Amino acid sequence: MEQKRPVRVERRLSAILAADVAGYSRLMHKDEEATHAKLTALLTDAVDPAIAEHGGRIVKNTGDGFLAEFPSAVEAVRAAMQFQTRIKELTIDDPEDRRIAFRVGINIGDVIVEPHDIFGDGVNIAARLESIAEPGGICISSAVYDQIRAKVRVEFADLGEQNLKNIALPVRAYAVVRDRSSPPTQAEPGALSLPHLSIVVLPFANLSGDPEQNYFVDGVTENLTTDLSRISGSLVIACNTAFTYKGKAFDVKQIGRELRVRYVLEGSVQRGGNRMRVNVQLIDAQTSNHLWAERFDKPLADLFDMQDEIVARLAGTLNAQLVAAEARHAERASQPDSMDLYFQGRAWLNKGSTAESRAQARGFFERALALDPGNIDARVGAAWVDVRTGNSYTTDDRAACFAAAEAALTKTLSLAPEHAMAHQVLGLILISTNRAAQGIAECERALALDRNLASAHGAIGLAKYSMGLGDETECHVQEALRLSPRDTSAYRWMMYAGFAKLLLSADEEAVARLRRSVEMNRNFPLAHFYLAAALAHLGRRDEARSAVQAGLALDPTFTISRFRARASSDNPTYLTQRERIRDGMRKAGLPEG
Q1: In a shared domain, residues 203 and 149
Q2: Could you tell me the residue range of the domain that residue 86 belongs to?
Q3: Per-residue model confidence as pLDDT tens digits over 11-42
Q4: 119 contacts: CB under 8 Å, gap ≥ 6
Q5: Pair (245, 169) in one structural domain
Q6: pLDDT computed for residue 250 by the predictor
Q7: What separation in angstroms does the CA of 413 have from each of 272, 406, 416, 426, 551?
Q8: Does the pTM exceed 0.90?
Q9: Domain co-membership, 20 together with 168
């Protein structure tokens, strides 16, 4: 009798994602039809698109959840992050007791495959990890963590060894940290590398001897915490946690270990007579080294207006200081990750717009994206390099630079619609390509997301004069400088103000602003050329020729014809005013070309 061959069982290694709705029975008890309708809508609008976009498939629905399979752990985690974020957006206005939130568990394992199901310990572990996840959270196994670290831009809390129901051996688990205003929990000291841009703002000390000033001091701490959390990629410890250290002696290194942050910001406020003095210092929590310090000494007027100004200046300055500090950390890293490389690229961008700085920045951003194509900040940085290149007078591929940057940012904003800097850089592209009104709208959107984005105010100032409204440029430039007086782009904003005055025939004022721009950055040729035009119109030919020589030493390819061809607007008033600058350049001795 012929013996039958055993049926071959199909097996494969997969990333398994298990998800269910937290408190589903309670929700159904309250309102079956509404809960079912809402769950169906969330699956259609949030879950299904995310899983499909990341190459996964839903194996089966389980009534209150689903089981999905992916060929890659990286894509499984990215899909989960995407649909959890989208679900939070879609349910944010729902009453808390009726809000649907998924718990997600992800594992890698060898599975038995059937047409409408998968089986195996790998599946069981994913389901058990899902059961210990928080509502709206994601819990992964160590097998997944080993595959995705340095590839997916999220932080993790190490939950240690977990004894999961009906699983023989303990499983080391990690929780994806979703709320960036709170520190990772349940983590053992030393278990995790510190998150990038992680900081706690400790309660500022009231040195005035006046208890009534406590509300002002605490307000500075709270508002600064809120504003710093708007910095892309930052993890800022919530005020409720920070205030537990109020009035206590502390060791900075210990705070860094307890809260798992890289930086500590501390400060004091002292009132003396009719003045208020605020001292702040940024400290590296790993070394206790002081990285930066600043003092604000202002007349005592409206306390809340002064508080807003202090907080705005601090937030803007700290943004640049934290980027510089992260870049220094990255330079010392033996194996820099995607964000390390991003911060090094940002540091080069902050150095100016020379050909070298742009090339160095581009190299770091491209390396960051090679490690993690989902690094949104690196995508924005690469687009910013293209914009800087397009706005320089050393390229003949201006249109191509702007087109590439615009395409990249449009894609980026479809993935991260709340990225303030992406909106601002897109606004700059629109302003530079004869769409100033649209550019202003993008910059205003950026400011709605981050009120301290000084560069957006500077870009609006640029837009105003390209619309023939040069008399409105000054106020936007002054607002940018109020927010960030020592900004690495301050020389550009001052040049915009000088250029606008030159357009309006206010040559003395133009000279004052353009000289200030040159003092801020002597390596920016355009400021020298505009200064030369203003001086020539005033009849100060020797000074004008000196400015021309300084500019041509930096950019020997500049000509008047190239300047004329680079008009960013077809506004008739602007074009007429611009011809006046061309005449000034001719009088100053710039080559016609």
Answers
A1: no
A2: 11-177
A3: 788 899 999 998 887 788 778 888 888 999 99
A4: 111, 112
A5: no
A6: 76
A7: 48, 10, 5, 10, 37
A8: no
A9: yes
